[in-house]
Amino acid sequence: MTVEDIGMIVGCTVNDVDAARSATAKRTARALGAIGYVLYGIAKSARHRPSRNGRPTLIMRVEREISASLSVRSPTIVEVAAAAGCTRQTLYRRLRALGTSFEEIRADLLRRRALHLIQTERLSIKEVSYQLGFSEASAFSRAFKRWTGMCPNAARRN
């Protein structure tokens, strides 16, 4: 059965079918465009909207990306930006708009994890430094002192 045969049964021509198909395609494209525009707006506002704990979702995503590979090595801003679906410069701009930077987020995350590991886990300073991605315990100790104002052993005693 051909399109012409169907047209005769239904009572319309091939041109009528093509016109209806074209109009339907245009309406569908307009509807999808409107839906896409709404979804884009929602996604854009979600980047800057605080999550339940008050931290913007973009900062939490950067923290998640850093945490995921922290014990192996510290990821670069380029790697984190790629995982977030943007360029390095875009990530830099968005973080700056939130009043922070990649380096500040990384340092804050390392500081919080270091305090947690030192105060709650029974790990040596060398093991903690390895888990946080430091190549040497002395580099970790210097960073810890810069972050907290005390050496790791003093923090463990407190």
From TrEMBL:
Q: Does the keyword Ribonucleoprotein apply?
A: no
Q: Give the protein name, as stated in the record.
A: Helix-turn-helix transcriptional regulator
Q: Read off the InterPro entries from this record.
A: Homeodomain-like_sf, HTH_AraC, Tscrpt_reg_AraC-type_HTH
User: Boundaries of each HTH araC/xylS-type domain copy?
Assistant: 60-158
Q: Which organism is it from?
A: Sphingomonas sediminicola
Q: Which Pfam families match?
A: HTH_18 (PF12833)
Keywords from UniProt, A to Z, are: DNA-binding, Transcription, Transcription regulation
Q: Does the keyword Manganese apply?
A: no
Q: Domain of life, per the record? A: Bacteria
